[in-house]
Amino acid sequence: MQFWIIQTLNSVAFGGLLFLLSSGFSLIFGLMRIPNLAHGAFFMLGAYFGYTLLSLKFNFWIAAIGAGLGVGLVGIILERFVLRQLPGNAQGQVLVTLGLSFIVADLCLLIWTGDPMPLPAPQELRPPLRYFGLAFPTYRLVVLGLALVAAVGLYFLMERTRIGAMIRAGVDDPEMARGVGIPVSRLFTTVFLLGAALAGMGGVLGGPILNAYPGLDADMLPLALIVVILGGAGSLLGAFVGSFIVGFLYNFGIALVPDLAYFVLFLPMVLVLMFLPQGLFGRVQL
Amino acid sequence: MTRSSIIWLVVCALLLIALPRIIIHEFYINMASQVLIFAILALSLNLMLGFGGMVSLGHAAYIGVAGYTCILLTIAGYHPLVAAIVALILSTGCAAIFGMLSLRAPGLGFLMITLALGQIVWGVAYRANTLTGGDNGISLPARPMPFGFDIRSAESFYYFTLIVFAVALFGMWRFVRSPFGASLMGTRDQPRRMRMLGYNTWRIQWLTFVIAGFWGSVGGLMYVYYNLFLSPHALTLQQSAEILLMAILGGATSLTGPIVGAAIITLIKNVVSTYVERWNSLLGIIFIVVIVFMPLGLVPGCRALWRKWQARHKPPVPAASAPEPAE
User: Where is the signal peptide (chain A) (predicted)?
Assistant: First the structure.
């Protein structure tokens, strides 16, 4: 019983982290048609920023926000000064983000060395909650809660505000959106900032669970890709549902069939691609 | 082929055959073998990239599937030839499945799916400790003896690689020049027109994917024969990206481009890793510089420069010479 509860909680907490990572990825792809291959590197960079802020004795939550802002800034720089250099060349833009992710990964290795860096969870969240004679890991519950808050916040931003309406219009038809006077290029920067900051914050929140280590980027990026392939590009709901599907499959895969943890992810991807090539809730063609 | 390109080909072939006599040092002969192996990989990827317009970021998966199969069968005691053939069949079969999945999405979706598939193969290799040895990798006991020839020394292995390379290059050259290759390029440039003309564009792209996978598997086998060792590091996204960069750097629209790209990247990597550990940064920087400043690659870029130079220095022969057929 304890095993299943712990694994389920681990899965949903991991799903929450994946949502923080993949919602931005999905929106950036939906709006700009760029799979930002540096998104895994953003996540890792966030974790390392968080580690440094924590070792400077900052509060955990301030570290998370600070790392999010820092990574968001990196995102703006990437969008403004690199991606803008290649207008209309989506393929080139993707490959440039890939090149950038290698540079970021290598610089992280240079600065923070190859050893895994632990990010301790905040003191008050470390003791497990006890109900009905079962122990629940408090921190993971909090991560899940924060991911849900982020999901609700993003939902309101996207569905209930003017800027959200403009982003949706940009996702559905960028040309038309431009035509009716929506500042699509400024939206690009906003969404990039938002996506990068969410990924960075996700890196810090994931720190106590995953640690910051070289290769974290390459571990997270394919998961974000699979989330978007499953859930559908450009859709918040798709990212949400996809994140938890992948969270469950990956976590239980590691717990039950450790050798084939990645292969377990392969099967749902095959099924979705076979029968629903746009993903479960896709707004745009992948 | 024009007369000048035949002369070039003969000169290059002679140079490649004489190479071990010229550079003598074993280290450099091994490096030349590496260049040829990566040239096979880059050329195979380029069938999709340059001639089919499909950007794949999962090509290292074939190194993995072919390599691990070959090593595991050899360890299990099968004849090296059997191991190699089964490895090629299995790996090409993987390519057939991966192709069906990736081609469900056009353009960037294709790229994302190939990346995800490549990472899944990497993840399986990394996690399946009992089979693949996980992060520690596994070794191939010995190089095979094709038709009784001993290819253990650097020089003999170089000649073996050269023969495989020549066969692969010829195969891919025939492929590109065949009517099928023409229909592939038609599909790349005008998919709707090709469909209108009655071509099954999906099947054309899928077959190309499978053939690219086959030659990629051949390259993967050679990679394992060269290193006598395989670990998940050979299957990473970096590896796939390096192969892609070779094709783009040299120029994806020709057959010479990926070879030149493979030579340059392999040399830079070998030289740089001796002095500094920052290969990945450099790889990233080359990636960005090439894509921003040389989107067409070195070979077409240089060719355009050469033609411009010729035109300036030989004004009396204008349009008479037929335009050089795009390779």
Answer: none
